[in-house]
């Protein structure tokens, strides 16, 4: 399989993470293109990564084998409808939260080969994780292309049911923000306990890194690892009791349910399925 040219529409946070990660994995800059309606954003990406970036979505769509849609869900319909005839055999990858394959196919053409994907920002450090779902038009070769792109920046997992992308969004798409929030809170609490801010931050960051690395490489689950830190009658036990009293697991579950619910709401607010239903209704 010859290396495909990958074009990004939308040169924001997520495109930056994916492109930055791919370049670290020795993907040739000449294979990556980007367009953004904001000329400054396009120029910034071109400068940062030495790739071709401009403001012409239509030209970009004609030039690439894989078209990666990295704009906000709110502008996805307008962006898709403004694209010309696609390059034959082109694979579309959409990373937008909440926008389903049916809507994308309505806007791009029912023959479009679409992979819906939910990556995350640690892709920039090649530590990303993505959930992928392919529509019926995607060939085995195109599935491999999608996998190669996402595996260059981390790991990817295929899903059998498209609906599960909303759960992936709640777990790993939004997930980095939950850990950043915990880092903020632990740093602030360490400072309240008397540590200089920098010291509290470094202790927190390296604890997060060490704990995640240990959990990823462990042959026992997180609850056993937690038990091993918690000496009976010791300090950790007191902290965990306090968290449990405040219903920590329920707090996390409610937040993640809210994220998943929002993804489903976006599908209704911005997708074509709902419009189609109301237009069909006499
Ligand atoms: N930020 C994250 O952690 C994640 C975001 N996503 C999804 O990725 C998509 C992009 O999100 P971000 O990168 O965070 O947003 P962003 O706002 O950083 O980037 C979007 C870019 O699209 C550009 N844009 C807007 N309208 C355009 C148009 N008509 N033509 C070309 N470019 C246009 C904007 O100028 C901006 O640079 C969203 O759909 C989001 O749901 C998915 C996973 C994680
Ligand atoms: O917050 C959002 O809507 C996007 C999707 C997952 C992460 N960021």
From TrEMBL:
GO molecular function (one): pyrroline-5-carboxylate reductase activity
Alphabetically ordered keywords of this record: Amino-acid biosynthesis, Cytoplasm, NADP, Oxidoreductase, Proline biosynthesis
Main location as per UniProt: cytoplasm
GO biological process: L-proline biosynthetic process
Record's GO cellular component terms: cytoplasm
Functional pathway: Amino-acid biosynthesis; L-proline biosynthesis; L-proline from L-glutamate 5-semialdehyde: step 1/1
Cell compartments where the protein resides: Cytoplasm
Keyword rRNA processing: no
Binding-site list for NADPH: 57
SUPFAM superfamilies to which the protein is assigned, alphabetical: 6-phosphogluconate dehydrogenase C-terminal domain-like (SSF48179), NAD(P)-binding Rossmann-fold domains (SSF51735)
Alphabetized Pfam families for the sequence: F420_oxidored, P5CR_dimer
Function description: Catalyzes the reduction of 1-pyrroline-5-carboxylate (PCA) to L-proline.
Family to which this protein belongs: Belongs to the pyrroline-5-carboxylate reductase family.
HAMAP family to which the protein is assigned, alphabetical: P5C_reductase (MF_01925)
Protein name: Pyrroline-5-carboxylate reductase
Organism, scientific name: Halopseudomonas salegens
